[in-house]
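Hi all, long-time lurker, first post. I run a small reading group and we've been trying to get comfortable going from sequence to structure in the token notation. Rather than ask abstract questions, I figured I'd post a concrete chain and ask someone more experienced to write out its structure so we can walk through it together at our next meeting. Sequence below, copied exactly:
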Amino acid sequence: MQFSKRMDGLAPYLFATIEKKIQEKRKAGIDVISLGMGDPDIATPDYIVEEMKRQVADARNHRYPTNAGLEVFAEAAAAFYKRRFGVDIDPATEFFPLLGCKEGLAHVILATADPGDVVLVPDPGYPVYYAGTIISGATPLIMPLKAENDFLPDLDAISAEDRRKAKLMFVSYPNNPTAAVVPEGSDFYERVAAFGRDNGLAVVSDNAYSELTFDGYVAPSFLQSPGAKEAGVELFSFSKPFNMTGWRIGFAVGNKDILAALWKLKTNMDSGMFEALQRTAAFILNGSWDFVDEMMAVYARRRDLVLHALSAIGLHAPQPQATIYMWVPVPEGYTSASFAEKVLDEAAVVVTPGNGYGTYGEGFVRISLTAPDERIEEAVARIEKSLKL
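-- Answer (accepted) --
Happy to help. Here is the structure in token form:
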């Protein structure tokens, strides 16, 4: 059978490949410790689960949902953005619900870019930016994220010709996979907004980790920048702040024209979000966020544990101010892939090779803090033992 040519340029999804390897090891009876995927081990809070049960029991939620999103969800999202970031959002025109951020990121490319257009993609970056561009038929143009530039893209390095062709630009801070942040007091988002406006391209800010911060750091929103709504949209996810990766709840806010195009596309492709999820999402946004603070105290403890343990075996990683990841340089003599393969084969520990996020991820692995403390300690001990073999 012949498949679409677009499949030729599409690699298997990174985490699907990793999950397959984990399953193979476990079927062989091997105790695998996975620090690969950003899938929290801490349960969704009970009060959220109970609210979802209540909403599922409500018969009104079992009909086709409204594609534009329930008013109660839109108003809760707008109130959250005003309270958290000081950003005014019109719930009627500047909000759109998403079945998790991942599908929103892929679909916004389809809604804005044509074959032959350029999409500015950070590298290393969340794989959907690149893959979604390939699926759309557009051309990804890599924006290198380098340690010497704090893992921020160098906008001045983008040529006039590439700016002319570009229709879309992705930014994501706090960043996955590097855990980099926009430094406090930085004008980075102001420059990104101006770059988008001046070059007539849509900026898409992937804001999935803004609430997962350490040591007093407060992550900004792209939409706080003057004129940002003229240039783009921002996506927010419930997956990581409330440990709801399987629920698939997110939303986009910002430029009403981009969101209208996204609405037009998605009404022809899916039937919207289950209204019980929407009402539960509104309940979460309007409620207490104490759980997030408690959860981040756990992640801070795990982060410090990993930093200390890695340093003791000669692996020195920067101390992240946000996310649930560590971006760790591999030992001398290894590539990202060879190091990840070694610790999987010899230590039964899963870390994610940095080159899985793009060419500029080479030389690093990503470690997720999504396992209990004792399993993280055991994982580092196993890695140390494997390096001595």
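A couple of things your group might point at:
The first strand starts at residue 33 and ends at 34.
Residues 41 and 371 are 6 Å apart (CA to CA).
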